Amino acid sequence: MESHSEQEKEKQFNERIDRGDIIEPKDWMPERYRKQLIRIMGQHAHSEIVGMLPEGNWITRAPSLRRKAVLLAKVQDEAGHGLYIYSGTETLGVSRDQMNQELLSGKAKYSSIFNYPTLSWADMGAIGWLVDGAAIVNQTALAKCSYGPYARAMIRICKEENFHHKQGYEILATLMTGTPEQKAMAQDAVDRFWWPSLMMFGPSDKDSPNTAELMRWKVKKYTNDDLRQRFIDRTVPQAENIGLKLPDDKLKWNPDTMHYEHGEINWDEFYNVIKGNGICNHQRLKARNDAHDKGAWVREAANAYAGKHAEKTMAA
Amino acid sequence: MTDKISKALFEYCLRLGDSPLILGQRLGEWCGHGPILEEDIALTNIALDLIGQSRAFLTYAGEIEAKGRTEDDLAFLRNEREFRNLLLTEQPNGDFAQTMLRQLFVSAFQYYFYSALKLSKDKTLSALAEKSLKEVSYHLRHSAQWVIRLGDGTSESKARLENALDELWKYTGDLFDMDDTDTILIKEGIVPDLNLLREDWLDKISETFGLASISIPENVFMMSGSRKGKHTEHLGHMLSEMQYLQRAFPGATW
Fold first, then answer.
1. How many whole angstroms separate alpha carbon B245 and alpha carbon B236?
2. Distance (Å, rounded) from C-alpha A220 to C-alpha A41?
3. Which H or E element spans position A261?
4. CB < 8 Å to A49, chain B
5. Are B154 and A174 within 8 A, CB to CB?
6. Rounded Cα distance, B88 and B110, in Å
7. pTM for the full model?
8. Complex ipTM value
9. CB contact, 8 Å: B92 with chain A?
10. Is residue B148 part of a domain?
11. Structural domain of B78
12. B79 in a domain, yes or no?
């Protein structure tokens, strides 16, 4: 009887999805839908938090005060995005502490792009332009996803990401009008970040285990390959505009499909970095764990203080 | 404006620009490493305000000097001995207690200082003081609340706060040091007499320490030197890092 009513609920849920209804926190949802959302939103929030590290790496070395201020503001935005999305996962019944523990233990994933090192100032440009550019393509699609809190978060976050994308592009554009050393610095950054940014969209559709289910529930509206193609199509002309060469000899416009064709992505590298073998995997996770451990006494002090003052208020 | 006054004003604007620059640079080191996410946001936010203040004062310094130097020329192409930031601002972040106590000392100073500078006869300084005052009011509230929480939190947090106090108190005298530059500009009604701010500053610190259950140290010999560009060894390392790109690629535009 009970399983019958569960089936009935799931049927109604699917009908709501088909109608294009937005699912809200208090609505009934299949356990699997909840889990998938927690996984995706968690990965997204963790990526924002870990993503602060490669860019934080250049705050103290930004080459002008304006660039320093802009970079500080960008990293601050990322912390805010992380906080916002963690609040979103709380609506699904998972606390921020639990999410954080999963990140620190290495159980939860975050975007592999942040396991690549930032080796020059131009990397701040490449991350803004390519990494945030790829994130915008992903997130613009997610802004129409079926889960209300996540969709609304994406609308707000995309606005800020658009700023970051423009700022990143402007960093590279400035370098490309500069000295030969600056141009080489910009090109080198793009050479290193182009392929990893294509990998940000995840495995090719035929190897993506979650895609079918997520599309059925309208969490995802487009496949990984569709989104990747959209990113490539919009990015190639931007590279050409400022004289950057994308490191793919097979990249060419196909007038029949009206899309760019591109070379094969090195999926071995992709899976290797996911498995923990990127140059910065260990360093990133260690930085987060160190911050957490070194901050323990601060959090304990804040809790103790709040406890004491709650007692005083009660007594008074 | 006579030569003597404009030279003094240039010197004074370097002080006003260098302190927030160096403290903002220090706070930037925390980015991504804070004890809680909210503090990552707060520390970055304070750093951002301070860098903004620095840009405004250094730009004005360049205008007063009238040799075509920009905020970036002044920030990235001067050496240790030419920097006029307060000794406190260059002290290492240490732990969170040291960072917050340093912030309290500087923010409380800036709060009373900007309140007085608002009355400057120099319209630019007056306007910049008014804008900065809004920002440092928040920095002061934030850092004072943390100092209270840490002092009245656990025995560990209190011990750490007291340790930070040992490290930092000796640099607080430098906040109020004055020299000929001050004398010239005070006479013109351009800048406040720092002696008149000391009591308010001390009251604020005493009040905060009272709530934090810690005491102001006695008989501490006060360090000085920032007015003459005599710094601790920490500044040179900060500048090497901060100025690296501008030094490595002279004349490039970023």
1. 15
2. 12
3. strand A259-261
4. 32, 37
5. no
6. 13
7. 0.96
8. 0.97
9. no
10. yes
11. 3-248
12. yes
